[in-house]
Amino acid sequence: MESISLIITALVAGAAKSAGDAVPDAYNSLKALIKHKFADEPKAKMVLEEHETDPETYAAPLKKKLAEAGADKDQEIIKAAQKLLKQVNPEESATGKYKVEFQGEVKAVQMGDRNTQTNTFSS
Predict the structure, then answer these.
(1) In the chain, what are the domain boundaries?
(2) pLDDT digits (tens, 9 = 90+) for 71-99
(3) DSSP letter string over the chain?
(4) CA 54, 22, 20, 36 torsion: positive or negative?
């Protein structure tokens, strides 16, 4: 999975999962790392917070802010996202579900189960 998609998928999964102690801890750790990365960007912090309650609306702005901050190259953030996904869905993580990687240009991608996606591309 492309690094920013991995991070966003982990944030969505962590926000949705409230049972147990490990998941909230891993979720809060991931958010803290991202907030630290956004230290000088109050708008980016706001997008991260809004994404928690409205992930559909704020997915694209968060993806942009994560890319601008270099979160996709921050191994500590990537490991925290992977850890969170392993705790949220241990059986799916064990089967390699969250290890998708893309080579070259990707115009559209959607991760998850039971999703619907419609793409319209113009030349």
Answers:
(1) 3-94
(2) 999 999 999 999 998 888 776 554 455 55
(3) --HHHHHHHHHHHHHH--SSSHHHHHHHHHHHHHHHHTTT-HHHHHHHHHHHH-HHHHHHHHHHHHHHHTGGG-HHHHHHHHHHHHHH-HHHHHTTTT-----S--S----SSS---------
(4) negative
* CA-based torsion, 7, 8, 12, 13: positive or negative: negative
Q: Is the pLDDT of residue 68 over 90?
A: yes
Backbone angles phi, psi at 5, to 5 degrees: -65, -40
pLDDT of residue 118: 72
| Cβ contact 82:66 at 8 Å | no
Considering the entire predicted model, what is its pTM? 0.68
Q: Give exposure, 66-91, as e/b (b: 16+ Cβ within 10 Å).
A: beebebbebeebbebbbbbbbbbbee
